[in-house]
């Protein structure tokens, strides 16, 4: 996980504190601590369930949503035939790709920022697609 993301998140929390927005400060802190706990938990493992990977992505994206506001929408779509408890992958495999899509594709876009992540079963392999409507 990029340290810059953590720095931005903490800055956003600080801004909420300065505005005395207690409700959103608590929400942001809760999500951030949950994400950090999950990242630390999986970081020493060789593989995790797809279910765990998507939970981490969901937490990460929900924090980005809080930071960007209503300009940013995302969806994680998992095909019905995929058993998320029986597919294993290296931990945090997808997060850097998703972060890259946000940082280089969506961050500087002036239009609505849309990110879609989809998982499909293609014969003997898992197809993962990360799409954004950004600038690069």
Spell out the key features of this protein:
136 residues; alpha+beta; 3-stranded mixed β-sheet; two-stranded antiparallel ribbon; 4 helices
Draw up the topology in text:
Blueprint: H1 3-18, H2 22-42, E1 48-49, H3 50-68, E2 72-78, E3 88-89, H4 95-106, E4 113-122, E5 125-132
Parallel strand pairs: 2-4
Antiparallel strand pairs: 1-3, 4-5
Helix pairs in contact: 1-2, 2-3
In words, what does this structure look like?
With 136 residues, this protein is an alpha+beta fold. The chain contains 4 helices and 5 strands; from the N terminus they run H-H-E-H-E-E-H-E-E. It has a 3-stranded mixed β-sheet with strand order 2-4-5, with helices on one face. Strands 1-3 form a two-stranded antiparallel ribbon. A hairpin with a 2-residue loop joins strand 4 and strand 5. It is globular, with a radius of gyration of 16 Å. 19% of the residues are buried. The mean pLDDT is 91.
Q: Tell how many strands the DSSP assignment holds.
A: 5
Q: Mind describing the biggest β-sheet?
A: 3 strands, mixed
C-alpha-based Rg, rounded: 16 Å
Tally of DSSP helical segments: 4
Straight-line distance between termini: 21 Å
Strand content: 15-25%
């Amino acid at each position: 996980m990029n340290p810059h993301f953590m720095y931005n998140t903490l800055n956003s929390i600080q801004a909420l504190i300065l505005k005395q927005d207690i409700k959103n400060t608590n929400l942001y802190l809760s999500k951030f601590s949950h994400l950090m706990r999950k990242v630390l938990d999986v970081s020493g493992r060789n593989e995790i369930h797809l279910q765990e990977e998507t939970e981490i992505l969901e937490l990460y994206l929900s924090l980005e949503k809080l930071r960007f506001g209503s300009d940013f929408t995302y969806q994680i779509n998992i095909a019905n035939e995929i058993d998320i408890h029986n597919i294993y992958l290296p931990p945090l495999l997808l997060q850097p790709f998703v972060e890259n899509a946000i940082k280089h594709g969506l961050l500087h876009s002036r239009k609505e920022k849309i990110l879609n992540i989809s998982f499909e079963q293609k014969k003997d392999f898992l197809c993962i697609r990360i799409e954004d409507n950004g600038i690069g």
